Amino acid sequence: DSTDETCGIAQFAVERHQMRGFNITYLHRSDRTGFKAGALDAGLRVAKGQYVAIFDADFVPSPDFLQRTIPYFTVDDRLAVVQARWGHLNDGYSLLTRVQAILLDGHFVLEHGGRNRAGCFFNFNGTSGVWRREAIGDAGGWQHDTLTEDLDLSYRAQLRGWKFLFLPTLVTPAEVPVEMNAFKSQQHRWAKGSIQTCRKVLPYILQADLPLKVKTEAFFHLTANFNYLLMVVLSVLMFPAMVVRYTMGWTEMLLIDVPLFLAATASVFNFYLISQGETYRDWRSRVRALPMVLAVGIGLAVNNTKAVIEAMMGHTSEFARTPKYGIERSRDEWQHKKYHQSLSIQPFIEVALGLYFTGTVLYALQHGIYGTLPFLVLFQVGFLYTGLMSIFQQTGGDDLLVKAPQIASGK
């Protein structure tokens, strides 16, 4: 679907491999109907073979990827997908990339791993996996009425009785976004697409003849992003609640604030702590970023709430690609490269919320309400970080202030 110089780059690469004797074809569409789903569907109309391996352009699969995935299909003729775990080429580039790596590790190691072992539904992630072509057709093919065509097809296929397999030991590294606006755009697409898919397939899941645990897990998986609506409401109500309760003593604080803080953060902290321990030898150095992981998760509330509302209102939008800059190959400044996301009013709303929580923190300090401070600081830092980073990076600044030290692989 590209319309820039990458078309020529791809075509020349194909021609080089054709000269070396590979059965490879360059395909290009003159329009973007259906976006990624439309491109995948158009490719299947030309491609031959029983299996389809899919990779986004920045993924670097190992040479033995097919040798380690295809044999599973020969053992089980109802196996539709083998999904590999995402790795990270540039997780040590900055604090932002480290946070994203931890978020993705939790998704793959615990969510995918847990759902797969429990026999529940989980999804193909759009890349770094192999599909049985028959399963794609049987489930209705690639459809483009959601922004998460991978999630949509995954649930439709599993409703048809197809099985999915996750291989946590097969890792395909890729570049995570280095720019805050690119990260937000990716999260917006994923959040909006998941709610679109929820509206589309959840009624069929609840009506299907499936075990209760499968329905329950699918329900929480597909509705998870509604939490951001509640987080925005919580953010707005935080300061009024502080004013009402400023006379609270230490006893009430220990009985209410501390347990609530632990309940809201301990499980999430433990979730990502375990995923790092399961994945890396140097996990102790990596978990230092966990407080920032919690803060960034909060900072995304405005961005993802907008996505959820758009999905619920039926607002359609284009598939916005996530800018990648090949940071792992060069330490050149990415600010001068193409494919930046445009700046909107949203970062200023996030900064305003960050300042709102700064005032709330000062109020808590002034009135001795110390038990709420850890919770308030997470909101303060999260909104200020996501908002200011968006503004500074888009207006010519860089992320030097949040650079993370280079960390050995340890994988």
Overview of this protein structure:
It contains 16 helices and four strands. Strands 1-3-2-4 form a four-stranded mixed sheet, with helices on both faces. The two termini are 35 Å apart. Helix content is 56%, strand content 7%. Mean pLDDT is 89; it is low at 398-411. The chain has 411 residues and is an alpha+beta fold.
Topology:
Blueprint: H1 6-19, H2 35-44, E1 51-54, H3 65-75, E2 79-88, H4 95-118, E3 129-132, H5 133-138, H6 149-159, E4 163-174, H7 180-207, H8 212-223, H9 227-244, H10 250-255, H11 257-279, H12 283-286, H13 290-299, H14 301-312, H15 346-366, H16 373-394
Parallel strand pairs: 2-4
Antiparallel strand pairs: 1-3, 2-3
Helix pairs in contact: 4-11, 4-13, 6-7, 7-8, 7-14, 9-14, 9-15, 13-16, 15-16
Q: What descriptive keywords fit this protein?
A:
single chain; 16 helices; disordered C terminus; 411 residues
Query: What is the average of the pLDDT values?
Result: 89
Portion of residues in helices? Answer: 55-70%
- Which structural class should the secondary elements be placed in? alpha+beta
Strands of the largest sheet, in order across it?
Answer: 1-3-2-4
**Terminus-to-terminus distance:** 35 Å
**How many strands?**
4
Could you give the order of the helices and strands?
HHEHEHEHHEHHHHHHHHHH
Largest sheet, strands/sense/barrel? 4 strands, mixed
What is the strand content?
5-15%
Radius of gyration: 23 Å
What is the general shape? globular
Number of separate helices: 16
Low-confidence stretches: 398-411
